[in-house]
Amino acid sequence: MRITAGQADELLTRAWFDGYTSEVEMYEGLVTVDEFDVEARAEEQGDTEMVLFGGGLTVRGTLDLSEEVHSIYAVRGPLRARRLILGDALLVVDGTVEIDEWIFGGETEGVFEVGGRQIESDTGHDAMLADLQAPVIVMFDRGRREFVLRENGEPREIKQLAARVLDDLDPDIRAEFLISARLRELLLAGQPIFR
After folding, report:
1. Which pLDDT score is estimated for 122?
2. pTM, rounded to two decimals
3. For the chain, what is the HEC assignment?
4. Distance, first Cα to last Cα, the chain
5. Using one digit for the tens of pLDDT, what is the confidence trace for 158-177?
6. Exposed, middle or buried: residue 7 (CB in 10 Å: 0-12, 13-18, 19+)?
7. How is the beta sheet containing 90-93 ordered, strand by strand?
8. For residues 75 and 54, what is the distance between their CA atoms, to the nearest angstrom?
9. Using an 8 Å Cβ cutoff, are 120 and 144 in contact?
């Protein structure tokens, strides 16, 4: 069903859609899909998407928010997925986030907000991560210009990353960019990222 951007924002108690679209596609019940690739969805529809999942979203595989696609997705209730790749799309969740394997977020233009908090929030990383569960978390904090790393809920530091992530970094390329690309490659290959 389609609702106005104002109605969607009222349900979310915050303005996410107004000013970007006049209508929002809304799914009232829980939506379950095998894969959720934002770039493929935009290509299929010929445009970005503006969607509110009113009863939660479950992705049996990977939820990939892609690059160069600026769709807006809001989830009321729980978000569950096997893997989550943050990107340039906006993802707002007002419930909990449960990821089976890992969350990866490099330096992107997108927004990922859980329970009203983002990784860049002034309340700190732990406040944002309180409603988020995943064995491995890699997110780049654009405000502080640092990676936020967690393994089984425990904070990890850059120096604890696997040697192949940190070795032979080209001094002419920003380290964050190279580290991000290597972490993504290892995660997608199912390889460990920590020593």
Report:
1. 83
2. 0.95
3. CEEEHHHHHHHHCCCCCECCECEEEEECCCEEECCEEHHHHHHHHCCCCEEEECCCEEEEEEEECCCCCCCEEEECCCEEEEEEECCCCEEEECCCEEEEEEEEECCCCCEEEECCEECCCCCCHHHHHCCEECCEEEEEECCCCEEEEEECCEEECHHHECHHHHCCCCCCCCHHHHHHHHHHHHHHCCCCCEC
4. 48
5. 999 999 999 999 989 888 99
6. middle
7. 2-4, 23-27, 50-53, 72-75, 90-93, 111-114, 117-118
8. 6
9. yes
Q: Are strands 117-118 and 97-105 parallel, antiparallel or unpaired?
A: unpaired
CA distances from 142 to 21, 95, 101, 146 (A): 26, 24, 23, 7
